[in-house]
């Protein structure tokens, strides 16, 4: 399948400690109305580390149900245990997910050969298109470019989400193999697309899906001048949404705009007063 355009790394709304499925339906609908190409439930932004297995699977199932075929669903089913990732991925496939996002195994720090075998086994055993997720700042290790190139020969491994903060990685990978690259950082979407990335898996589009869809579409059409205008308008927000650990700021911002209740699960906690004021000023300036 083709992975491209704007995918939203969806937040998971909570209320009184439980997943708020009413709000989840609302935020999915807002994404659809914004014209996104796809939705990613149960990724980092969806607080997957604090969801139980049952909640994890129910969130995926509900997002598929709410979207009802109107956009693609990329289920976050990665784990640092290969067999657990396979179990989650098989269930997501049975529910109707279009693809899955597989994060680099964290904490146990496998070798590059271990990464190759991990991702290959998931792709071979599950038969669901796999998007590799390179985010060394969270996992402790990168997926080396030559490992990506080895994995790209597997027909079920279709893309890589690059969240290592390096535009150069896009050129490095594309110089080695033919694989779709999606930016994993809103602020790097335009520069990454200028050297060959096909879109973004976005945090900011939880709030502004329509505007960021326009930015990505301009870049995809080669109209980088117009894409850059939108990038510059939202650049401060892109940065402020990472002023503390994601998804703390984006959930705080959505709560400020009345979209959700501001609720997290420990070890995440509410944004500091100082950063809340900075975030609010950024939103106020955007919405003037």
General description of the model:
The protein is α/β, with parallel strands linked by helices and 288 residues long. The chain contains twelve helices and ten strands. An eight-stranded parallel β-barrel has the order 1-4-5-6-7-8-9-10, surrounded by five helices. The chain is globular and about 50 Å long. 47% of the residues are buried.
In short:
With 288 residues, this protein is of the alpha/beta class.
Mass-distribution shape = globular
What percent of residues adopt helix (DSSP H or I)? 40-55%
N-end to C-end Cα span = 40 Å
Structural class of the secondary elements?
alpha/beta
Please tell me the overall pLDDT. 97
- The strand count comes to 10
Approximately what portion of the residues adopt beta-strand conformation?
A: 5-15%
**Low-pLDDT runs:** none
Number of helices: 12
What order do the helices and strands follow? EEEHEHEHEHEHHEHEHEHHHH
Largest sheet: spatial strand order: 1-4-5-6-7-8-9-10
């Amino acid at each position: 399948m083709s992975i491209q355009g704007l995918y939203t790394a969806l937040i998971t709304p909570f209320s009184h400690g439980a997943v708020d499925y009413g709000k989840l339906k609302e935020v999915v609908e807002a994404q659809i109305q914004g014209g996104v190409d796809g939705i990613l439930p149960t990724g980092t932004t969806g607080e997957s580390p604090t969801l139980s297995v049952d909640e994890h699977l129910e969130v995926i199932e509900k997002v598929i149900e709410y979207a009802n075929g109107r956009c693609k669903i990329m289920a976050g089913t990665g784990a640092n245990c290969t067999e657990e990732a396979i179990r989650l991925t098989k269930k997501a496939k049975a529910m109707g997910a279009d693809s899955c996002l597989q994060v680099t195994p964290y904490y146990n720090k496998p070798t590059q050969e271990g990464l190759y075998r991990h991702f290959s086994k998931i792709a071979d055993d599950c038969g669901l298109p796999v998007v590799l997720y390179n985010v060394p700042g969270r996992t402790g290790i990168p997926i080396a470019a030559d490992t990506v190139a080895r994995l790209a020969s597997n027909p079920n491994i279709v893309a890589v989400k690059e969240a290592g903060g390096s535009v150069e990685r896009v050129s490095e990978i594309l110089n080695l193999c033919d694989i779709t690259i999606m930016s994993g950082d809103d602020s790097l979407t335009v520069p990454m697309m200028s050297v060959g990335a096909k879109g973004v898996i976005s945090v900011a589009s939880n709030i502004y899906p329509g505007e960021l869809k326009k930015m990505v579409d301009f870049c995809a059409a080669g109209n980088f001048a117009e894409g850059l205008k939108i990038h510059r308008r939202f650049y401060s927000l892109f940065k402020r949404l990472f002023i503390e650990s994601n998804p703390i700021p984006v959930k705080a911002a959505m709560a400020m705009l009345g979209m959700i209740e501001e609720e997290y699960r420990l070890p995440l906690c509410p944004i500091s007063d100082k950063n809340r004021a900075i975030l609010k000023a950024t939103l106020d300036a955007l919405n003037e």
